[in-house]
Amino acid sequence: MENLIGLLIAAPLLGAAVLLCGGRRLDRVGHWIGCVLAGASFVIGVVLFAHMLALGGEERTLREHLFSWVPVGGFQADVAFQLDQLSMTFVLLITGVGTLIHVYSTGYMEHDERRRRFFGYLNLFLAAMLLLVLADNYLLLYVGWEGVGLASYLLIGFWQHKPSAATAAKKAFIVNRVGDMGLSIAIMLMFTTFGTFAFGPVLASTDRASEGVLTAIGLTLLLGACGKSAQVPLQSWLGDAMEGPTPVSALIHAATMVTAGVYLITRSGAIFNASPDAQLVVVVVGAVTLLFGAIVGCAKDDIKKALAGSTMSQIGYMILAAGLGPIGYAFAIMHLVTHGFFKAGLFLGAGSVMHGMNDEVDMRKYGGLRTYMPITFVTFGLGYLAIIGFPGLSGFFSKDKIIEAAFAKGGTEGWILGGVALLGAAITAYYMTRVMIMTFFGEKRWQPDAEGNEPHPHESPKSMTIPMIVLAFGSVFAGGLFSLNEAFVKWLEPVTSFEHGHSPLSAGAVTGATVAVMVIGVALAWAQYGRRPVPVAAPRGSLLTRAARRDLLQDDFNHVVLVRGGEHLTRSLVYLDHTVVDGVVNGTAASVGGLSGRLRKVQNGYARSYAVSMFGGAAVLIAATLLMRAV
Amino acid sequence: MSSAATVHSLWTTAAEIPDKIPAPHIEYGQLAPTLIVFGAALVGILLEAFLPRRARYHAQLLLSLVGLAAAFAAVIGLAAGGYATDKARIAAMGAVAVDGPALFLQGAILLVSLVAVFTFAERRLDPRAHGKRVDSFAAQAGAVPGGAAEQAAVKAGFTTTEVFPILLFAVGGMLVFPAANDLLTLFVALEVFSLPLYVLCALARRQRLLSQESAVKYFLLGAFSSAFLLFGVALLYGYAGTVTYSGIAEVVDGTVRNVTPALAGTMGNDALLLIGSAMVLVGLLFKVGAVPFHMWTPDVYQGAPTPVTGFMAAATKVAAFGALLRLLYVVLPGMRWDWRPVMWGVAIVTMLAGAIVAVTQTDVKRMLAYSSIAHAGFILAGVLAATPDGVSSVLFYLAAYSFVTLGAFAVVTLVRDAGGEATHLSKWAGLGRRSPLTAAVFAVFLLAFAGIPLTSGFSGKFAVFQAAAGGGAGELVVVGVIASAIAAFFYIRVIVLMFFSEPRPEGPTVAVPSPLTMTAIALGVAVTVALGVAPQYFLDLAGQAGVFVR
Question: Could you tell me which residue ranges the NADH-Ubiquinone oxidoreductase (complex I) chain 5 N-terminal domain spans (chain A) (predicted)?
Answer without folding.
Answer: 69-119
